[in-house]
Amino acid sequence: MKQYRVGIIGCGSIFPMHSISVARQVNAKLVAVCDIKEERAKARASEYNCAYYLDYREMIDQADLDVVHICTPHYLHAPMAVYAANKGVHVLTEKPMSISLADACEMIGAAEKNGVVLGVIFQNRYNPGSKLVKEMLVSGQLGRIISSKLSVTWKRTDEYYSKSDWKGTWDKEGGGVDLARWLVDSEIEFVDASISNRTHSLIEVEDAAEGVIKYKNGVLTCFYAVNYYGYDAPVEIELSKSSFTASAAWPRSPPTPARLSSMMGVSLKRHPIPKSSSITETSSITGESAISSRSPISIRLWPRESNLKSLVKMPSRRRHWSARSTNQARRSRKSTSKPFKSRLCRQ
Fold first, then answer.
1. Cα angle vertex 234, ends 290, 142, to 5°?
2. What is the pLDDT of residue 242?
3. What would the mean pLDDT of 106-124 be, rounded to a whole number?
4. In the listed set 72, 104, 121, which residue is the last one of a domain according to the structure?
C-alpha cells in the first residue's frame, strides 16, 4: 500500500486537527511542516519527528510531498494551493476555499490542468447528526424541504481580533455557508442580506448579518448571525419539511432512539419540549468528537402543520427530530449580495 507523504503549511491553532488525522491514517505520514514563526515550526516538527521549513515554496520543492494541507490565513489559501498544484502536489485546504470567486476559479483551474486533487475542509458534514439527516433526506424518508432557517450566535471580542493582523479585515479574511446548502442540495440563485458592525471598534467587517438565500429548487433560507453574543451558542439549522414519507425501513413509525443509536453508532437521548409547541416530543443525537469539542450543531426537521392530515401512515404522535453533534463547529461567516460588499464571492 502506498504511503502518502504529507506536509502541513501553518502550525497554529487548527494544526492539530490535521496532524492528528494524518497520524491516524495507515497510508499517510507527516514528513514536513511549515510556518513563518520558526519556534512554532520547530515545536511541531519535534512533536512529529519531521522536517520543518519557514517558506512553503521550499517545503513543496524539497520535501517530495504527495499532499499538502493548507492551514493558513484565508487570503493565502489560493496562492499556496496554486503553487502546490503546479508542482503536482495534491491539496487539502482549510475553509474558506478563498476570499474571492476569481481566486477559487484559479485554484480549480490549476488542479485540473495538473491532474491533482483539490479538497476543501467541510468537517461538519461528517458529524453523526449531519450524516444522519443527509441520509434521511437523500432516501426521501423526510419528504421535501420547503424552507430552512439558520442561526449563528457566537462571541468574538475586540481582544480576540487584536491578536491577529488578518481577522476582521476585508482583504484577508473570508467566509461562507456550507452545511445548509449541502442539506438543501441545490445551487444558489441569489443572496440578499443586510450587514452592520454594531459592537466592535477594531474590525473592518460586520459583526451582524441577516438575510435570505434563494436556491434554484425554490427553497428559501433565512439566516441570522452575530458574533457579540455572550458565548459560542450551538449553530442551528432548521428545515421545514413538506411531509414525512413511509418506507420499508419505517413501515409504521420513525425509528426509535435505540434503532437510530444502532444505525449511527452514537448515543441518542429523548427529552421533552415546551407544552406550547405543536410538536409533542423531540430526540437528539449526540456524537463526541475524538479530537475536540466546541459548539454543537443542531439540525431540526419540522413537518408542516397544514400537511399533517394528508400524510401516509403518519404516526399518531408527531415528532420533532433534532440531530445534535458536539463535533467541532468553527465560525461560518455569511455572504451578502449586491449592493452589499461580499467576502464569499468578491470579484
1. 90
2. 65
3. 96
4. 121
| Residue 276 backbone class (left: φ over 0; alpha: ψ -120 to 50; beta: rest) | alpha
Q: Is residue 86 part of a domain?
A: yes
174 — pLDDT class (breaks 50, 70, 90): confident
Cis check: omega of the bond before 96, within 30 degrees of 0: yes
- For 273-282, the pLDDT digits (tens) are 334 333 323 3
Is the model's pLDDT at 220 over the cut of 60? yes
- 339 belongs to a structural domain: no
Instruction: Supply the range of the domain harboring residue 283.
Output: 125-325
Domain count, the chain: 2
More confident residue, 298 or 147: 147
pLDDT band at 136 (very low <50, low <70, confident <90, very high): confident
Report field, pTM of the whole predicted structure over 0.85? no
81 and 89 Cβ atoms separated by less than 8 Å: no
